[in-house]
Amino acid sequence: MKNLDGKVIALASDHAGFAKKQVIIKYLNDNGIAFEDLGCYTDESVDYPVYAHKMGDAIESGKYEIGITFCGSGQGISIAANKHQGVRSGVCWNTEIAALARQHNNANVCAVPGRFVSDEEAVAIVKTFLSADFEGGRHARRVDLIPVEK
Q: Which of 40, 71, 92, 110 is catalytic?
């Protein structure tokens, strides 16, 4: 794992992603990686957009540079987080996608599909996402075209 230069990782989930988030919290704690949990804090039913927007606000404000979200499919929380102009969230269901999300799309949020990956796969996905770097070059031109001009 590369040095995260003291960056704190933001975490957020809905109820369907809560258990997988606990797996990642243990991984982060075991590896001395700083994080802040933006919620939810139980497996009781909640609305994923609430936590996606907490993540989006935290990324856009500059408080955090990188985040990891969790919901059942990873899709809903990623769609909602991507409503924030400063967020580039990708649903990462394996390590290859996690690496490419960072390398080619400069993703700053990894959305983990909690119901579709094992605990071991989730750890590998997060480890890969946090270790990968944006390649820039031709990808930078494309990423620069993503924000909607108002």
A: 71
